[in-house]
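User: Hello, can you help with two protein structures?

Assistant: Certainly.
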Amino acid sequence: MSQIAVDDSIDSAPACEALSPMAIALVQLALACGGFGIGTGEFAIMGLLPNVADTFSVTTPQAGYVISAYALGVVIGAPVIAVLAAKMTRRSLLLLLMGIFAVGNILSALAPTFEIFTVMRFITGLPHGAYFGVAAIVAASMVPVHKRARTVGRVMLGLTIATLLGTPLATFFGQSLDWRAAFTSVGVIGLVTVALIWYYVPRDQVADGASFLRELGAFKRPQVLLTLGIAAVGYGGMFAMFSYIAGTTVKVAMLPESMVAVMMVLFGVGMNAGNIVGSWLADKSIMGTIGGSLVFNIVVLTLFSLTASSPIMLAICVFLVGCGFAAGPALQTRLMDVAADAQTLAAASNHSAFNIANALGAWLGGLVIAWNYGFAATGYVGAVLSLFGLFVYAASLRLERSRRA
C-alpha cells in the first residue's frame, strides 16, 4: 500500500506527481466502489417496498417511511460527522464511514422488526453525504486544478452507475430471492470498499489547525450557503419529475407498466452521460456549468410537461432530465473552492442539500397531483424550482463579481 501523504489542499500537485497515473486510477476506483454501494443501497429499497411491507405486515406507504428515515440520516449525518470528525485523517474517516455503511446494511438485512429496520436505515444513511464529500476532496487532491471536476465526476460515477446497474440488479434479486439478500449484497460491497480504501488510498495527516469550530466556519461563508441553496432548490425539479415517473408513464403516456423499468434505465443513462459531460465542462467553467444546467433543466422539464402524452417524447425527456445531473461534479467542486479551510463540512453538506432537493421536489410534485393537475404537471413544478435555483445562482454570481471589483 502506498504511504505517500495526500496534501490537505485541493490543488495538490506534489501528491499528483508522487503517485503514478495507475495508483491515482486505483484510488478513484476504490472511492467509486463505495459510491456504487451507497447508490445501490439508497435506491434499491424503492423497488422492494412491497416485499418489505409483506415481511413486516405493514402497508406499502408505511414501508415507505424507511426511505424517509434514510434521507433524514443523510441530511443529519453529513454535517454532524464532518464536524465531529474534523481531527481525523481523511483516509481513517473514509474507512469509518464505509464500515458504518457496510454494517448498517447487513444489520438491516437481519432486522427482526419493522421498527428496528427503520432505525437501521437511518443509521445507514448517516455516512452517505460525508463519504461522498471526503471522497471528492481526497480524489481532487491528487490531480492538477484543471482536472479536479473530472476526477470528482469519476468518484460520483459509482453513484450514477448504481442507478443504471446496481439498483435494477439488487431489485431483481431482492424480488426473486429475498429483499434481505439485496441489503446483504450491498453490505458486502461496503466491506469490499473498506478493503480497497485500506489498500489503495494513501495515508494522510490531519491538517494543521483542524477543529470542529473551523469546520463550522463553512456555514459563515455566504458562497457556501448560496451554493448549497442552488443544490437544495434548483435541483429539486429532477426529483419532482422522477418521483412520479411510474404514474406519468402509465396514466399519461398510456404505456404498460413494464415500460416503467425502461424509463428508469433511460434516466440512469442520462445521469451517467450528464456526469461525464458535466465534469468535463466544469473543468472549463464551474459557474458556467451550474448556470447552464439550470437553464437546461427549465427547458427540458417544461418540454416534459408539454409532451408527456407522447411515448417517444417522454422517453427523450426522461433521458434529458437525467442529464441534468451534469451539475453534480460542478457543485461539489464549487463547494470545495469557496469553503477555504472548512472543505470537509462544505463538501459533505452537498449531499444533504441534494436530499433536501429530493424531499422538496417529491413533496411539491405530490401536491400538484393531489390538486388534480395530473402527473405531467410535475415537470412544471421542476421548471419553477430550477428557475428559483437560477435566482440563487445569480445572487452567488453577483456577490462574487462585487468582491472582485
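That covers the first. Now for the second protein you mentioned:
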Amino acid sequence: MADQRIGALIVLEGREDLDRHVHGGIELDGKITIPLLHSIFNTNAPGHDGAVLSDGQRILKFGVHLPLSTNLYKLSRGGTRHTAALGLSEKCDALVIVVSEERGTISIAENGQIKELESHSDLKKHLDDFWAEYYQSKTTSNKQWGERRSLKTALAAGSLAFILWLSFAYPSETVYRTYAVPIEYSNLESTSYALQDTVPLQARITLSGSEQAFRTFDPSELIISFDLASEEVEDLELDIDSDNINLPAGLQFFEASPSVLQLKKQYFVPVNVPVKVPVTGTIAEHLQFQPVVPSPEIITILVDTAAATIDSVLTEPVDLSQVEEQTVQQKMLQLEGDSFRLSEQASPNITVTINVRKIQS
C-alpha cells in the first residue's frame, strides 16, 4: 500500500477497551485479507478516510474516527491520519499503523509516540513484538490449556475464575483516586475583577467510588466551573465542592486542593498617557536620525486605583542599525503587571514612523 501510495490507518487493539476513545465506524467482523484492506482504503470507498479496527485476526470495524492529538510538536510531518494515530496511542495501549498517500511512508504510533519507519522489515518487527506481547501468549496458553484439561477440571476452573471475577471486578470497598482538573471562570468582568496573584489553571480533586465506577469514567471530561455573574461582594471566596464539578454517576467528591480560591475585586480608572518609542542600536554614519513619531501619540489606559501612577507607555524598541531610509513599522505596547490594562477601544498595535535624512558630504 505504501508503494502504491494508498493511504491507510490501521489500529491493532491491545488489552484496553477502545470504545470510549473512538467514534462512528461500520461493523464488519471479517477476516483480514489484502484485497479487503485495499477495498476499504480505496479512495472511492466511503470509509477510506477513517480507521480500521482489528483484534489481530479480524477487522472489527472500518471508517472509524480516532481522537486527534494536541501535541503537534511530535509530528514533524504528516496530516490528519498521523494526528489521529498519535491521539489514540496517547489514550490507550493500541498500536496504530499509518500509510502516507502523499509520501508513501509507513509510520507507527504507540505509547504516545509516533515515528516513521525506514523499511518494511521494521514494520514486521514492530508487529511481531506487539503480537508477542498482546496475542501470542494468550493464544498459546489457551491452546495448551484446552489440550491438557478434562471437562470436569475445566468446569471447576471456570467456576473458580467466575467467583474470583465477581470478587475483584465488583469490590465492595471504596476506592479513592486523585486527578488534576482544569478550572474555568465564566462572566468574569475584565475591568472589575481580578484573581489574586495568578489565575489557578487547575486543582487536584479526589473522588471516591467503586472500582467498577472508575473503570467507566473518563477523567478528561472533568471540569471545575464557577459562574461569577451574580457575585457582588468586595472579596470572594470560591469553595471547590460537588456543586461546581460535573461528577459522573457512581462517583462522589471527597476533597480538593486547594479547597478555596480567593477572588479580589479591583477598581480601574481611565487615564490618558503619551506613547513613547525607545530606540536601540546606532544609525548609519551617512544618515541623520529625526524624532520617532508614534500613532496614536496618546492612548487610554485603565489603571488600578490601588497601584502606582503611570506617566507614559513604551512600545517595543526600534533598532536604528536596521534603518536605511524613512520607514513605517508596527510596534506592540509593553504593559507589564495586572495594575495596568488597555481600554476596550485602545489597540495594542502602534504605528511608528521613523524619519531619517541623508547627510550631505
